[in-house]
Design a protein that fits this description.
Length: 508
């Protein structure tokens, strides 16, 4: 027994070590941080109980990143850690369901060799979101399995952390509560601890709810903008197709888990989990959600399927199917390795676009095809922008304001700047981060490229001099041809004009 315990622990350590190795080796050095990563990192410098785009949890992790030095290694460490913890929770779920070594390896391989490798590359709330979904499902299964009330309180804490990370976790509850209500496990709703645990969860998320209320619920404005600019281009059929791609090598295992929930006697009390998936996916389809919103659904079903397969494939005659089940994720990973990760240079992708186009990776949020996948184009040009802005900023006197068109520009300049620039924008959370306590006599304007250029014409009347100083030359970057203007010698109160624009933006 002791030998078996040591063997399992060594296997788990090996899977986690491999997870970290892969996360650090799947990005080609040509690529920089992603535009979203810059925003999340900048939130560390503006602590609050909420933000325009996300809840506050990521800002706490960002503070820890900077406490550790702020380097790219640490930026990439935390999503990799959350991915490794997701694997750990799946492992523990399999152990609780009495899975053997085969089940543990099948579950761990399915989680390791999956779309989570792509998701865990970027410093975004998504990695922790998947961890929270998996953990919350695990807590619910553990409660049903043991009826120990501690799991209800653990579940409420996990829900609160997930909610404070990304509101997406509400859809988990929207799927699982009606599923439980329709099952024999509805007796849960008669338990006092169930309601006490809900109260605990509400207490933990209350500061963010209060912040939302005091700021006129910006989450709704963000969702409205998201629906109008991005979700409008989502095709429901594509949503379903993409679900097949996230855990392609584990479809067999996930399907086995769903079937087991209907026919496997030891899973009879977990049958609500089958309907929970159906309900949650249906909600996402109706709302035209992005496909990756549902990734958090699947790891726990891999655990359920792995244990079931370990039971039905335990005879010697079927041992070879065990080997096939273990090999499938690895076999499917080979083509994914070539296409689904930024491990090829931009030049290679431009010269070999066929497979990228066939798999829909060149289609951006605007519904059009481009030269590179959108995420890849969002990881280029930032150092160039920061370097050129730094050079211009260093030649100007104090009281220079750097105003950007979008949060990616502002965040990249702030992250890479050697001059201590605190760039701002009327976009996303930056609209709340203007420092207008001191006058601004000079102005660096970062402007997205437009075919008809009128920045000089519009802004120069307020300054003594104006010039188009530079632009982004990386043709593969999403910010290609972004302009850098310099305006000096303000003729009017620039802060007053900025305040007026801030008020106008907030009223829209």
């Amino acid at each position: 027994m002791k030998h078996l315990f040591q063997q399992r622990n060594l296997l788990l350590i090996g899977f986690i070590a491999l997870k970290f190795f892969l996360q650090y080796s799947l990005i080609s050095p040509e690529y920089e941080l992603h535009r979203d990563e810059f925003l999340h990192l900048d939130q560390a410098h503006h602590p609050a109980w909420g933000y325009q785009s996300v809840p506050p949890f990521t800002s706490l992790i960002s503070s820890l990143v900077f406490l550790l030095g702020g380097g790219v290694f640490w930026v990439k460490f935390f999503p990799a850690l959350f991915g490794a913890l997701t694997l750990f929770i799946v492992w523990k779920c399999i152990e609780q369901l009495k899975g053997n070594i085969f089940a543990l390896c099948l579950g761990a391989t399915g989680v390791l060799i999956s779309a989570l490798l792509r998701l865990n590359m970027l410093y975004q709330p998504n990695s922790f979101d998947v961890l929270c979904w998996t953990s919350l499902y695990f807590m619910i299964i553990s409660y049903v399995n043991t009826e120990n009330r501690k799991w209800l309180y653990y579940a409420s804490i996990i829900f609160a952390l997930g909610f404070l990370n990304k509101y997406n976790i509400i859809f988990l509850l929207a799927g699982i509560f009606p599923a439980i209500l329709l099952s024999k496990e509805r007796k849960l709703f008669l338990k006092k601890d169930f309601y006490l645990s809900i109260f605990l969860g509400l207490l933990l998320i209350f500061p963010n709810l209060l912040w939302q209320y005091e700021n006129d619920f910006p989450v709704f404005a963000h969702m409205k903008e998201l629906a109008e600019t991005q979700l409008v281009n989502v095709n429901r059929l594509d949503f379903l197709k993409d679900q097949m791609l996230f855990f392609t090598g584990s479809i067999f295992t996930i399907t086995a888990g769903l079937i087991a929930l209907l026919i496997f006697k030891p899973y009879r009390k977990f049958r609500f989990m089958f309907w929970s998936m159906i309900f949650t996916l249906s909600i996402f389809i109706v709302l035209k959600a992005k496909a990756y919103y549902a990734i958090g659904l699947y790891p726990i079903y891999i655990a359920l399927g792995a244990v079931y397969l370990s039971h039905i494939l335990s005879t010697n005659r079927l041992k070879f199917i065990q080997a096939i089940a273990l090999a499938l994720p690895i076999l499917f990973f080979i083509p994914l390795y070539k296409l689904a990760f930024p491990n090829k240079s931009p030049e290679y992708i431009v010269q070999n676009p066929k497979r990228y186009q066939e798999t829909g990776q060149l289609r951006w949020e605007d519904g059009k095809n481009h030269a590179l996948p959108q995420d890849y184009a969002d990881m280029l040009g930032w150092k160039e922008l920061a370097r050129k802005t730094d050079s211009l900023f260093s030649k100007l006197p104090d009281h220079t304001l750097v105003l950007c068109d979008n949060y990616g520009q502002a965040g990249a300049i702030n992250y890479y700047s050697k001059q201590g620039i605190r760039a701002v924008s009327f976009n996303a959370d930056y609209i709340n981060w203007f420092d207008l306590k001191r006058p601004h006599n000079h102005f660096i304007r970062i402007k997205e490229y437009e075919e008809i250029e009128n920045e000089i014409e519009e802004t120069s009347p307020y300054f003594n001099s104006s010039i188009l100083a530079d632009s982004i030359t990386n043709q593969y970057a999403r910010e290609y041809r972004t302009r850098i203007y310099v305006f000096t010698g303000a003729k009017v109160d620039i802060n007053k004009l900025i305040n007026q624009e801030i008020e106008a933006v907030k009223k829209r």
